[in-house]
Design goal:
With about 280 residues, the chain is an alpha/beta fold. The protein contains 10 helices and 8 strands. Strands 1-2-4-3-5-6-7-8 form an 8-stranded mixed sheet, sandwiched between helices. It is globular and about 45 Å long.
């Protein structure tokens, strides 16, 4: 039987719980799903209680026509934690999952968590003025509108391209795991177009740089050494602006650390969880 929780606005969110022990909640990224964590859940659930869920508009969760922004994703996270009685969980966010945590911290602070992990994400998605650490080191208003137009024009083609962009920049197309790419693309295509576009716009509109110095709990910063999405300066910026943080560079990974170096990530997450 599938497990669902009802959010503030009536949207039903699909979730799973595996294992027992300290609570850990894993938050997936844009156009992903709880299955993104398939290489983390088996390892972590041997020692901890692991919660995964599909964001609204994604996977098996409801596909609403409104409330598709980071504010609502953060509110959903708070509701999920409350309804599942998760006390001081360790929260792990990949990409937009990290942005969900940034928004949560902006709204509520960090007192609900014992520790955090941000995986390959920038605090400001758009480049502007002297900020060159947005996506690709180049995303501006004009490019973001172009990307939105491409999503409406050819969702499948652009989803596959974005999935491939998640791997290490030095990997050749023929060396990438085709079956894995198709699985990720299929997951992405199970995201509603309204969620895909609405959340992309929300990512572009937000700036979380002022949130970082306010974080007091321990933070693991996991960044891909070959990320095609963010310049290497992002990880250094995050380390400099979050006091109680540990930076780990995954040299064999791009944005998809969850898939490219799962064993190393699982070890680092286990160490973080056991330390709090």
């Amino acid at each position: 039987m599938a497990n669902f929780l009802e959010m503030e606005d009536g949207v039903k969110i699909r979730y799973e719980i595996n294992g027992r022990g300290k609570p850990v909640i894993l938050i997936h990224g844009w156009t992903g799903g709880r299955a993104n964590w398939m290489r983390q859940v088996p390892a972590l659930s041997q020692h901890f209680q692991v919660v995964t869920y599909d964001h609204r508009g994604h996977g098996e969760s409801d596909k609403p026509e409104k409330h598709l922004n980071l504010n609502w994703l953060a509110r959903d996270l708070k509701t999920i934690m409350k309804k599942l009685n998760l006390e001081k969980p360790v929260a792990v966010g990949h990409s937009m999952g990290a942005a969900t945590l940034f928004e949560y911290l902006k709204l509520y602070g960090d007192e609900d968590f014992s520790a955090l992990c941000f995986i390959d994400m920038t605090p400001k998605f758009m480049c502007s003025g002297d900020w060159k650490m947005g996506i690709g080191g180049a995303l501006n208003c004009e490019l973001s509108l172009l990307l939105l137009g491409q999503l409406f024009e050819d969702a499948r083609g652009n989803v596959e391209a974005s999935v491939i962009m998640g791997y290490h920049r030095d990997k050749k197309l023929e060396d990438l795991p085709r079956e894995e790419i198709e699985t990720l693309a299929k997951m992405s295509l199970n995201t509603s177009l309204l969620a895909t576009t609405g959340l992309f716009v929300s990512l572009c509109l937000n700036d979380y740089r002022e949130v970082l110095p306010k974080i007091k709990v321990p933070v693991l910063l996991a960044y891909g050494g070959g990320s095609q999405l963010f310049p290497p300066e992002v990880s250094k910026y995050m380390k400099q602006h979050i006091k109680n943080s540990k930076l780990v560079i995954y040299e064999k990974s791009g944005h998809n650390i969850l898939y490219e170096e799962p064993e190393k990530l699982n070890r680092e997450l286990t160490e973080l969880i056991q330390s709090v």
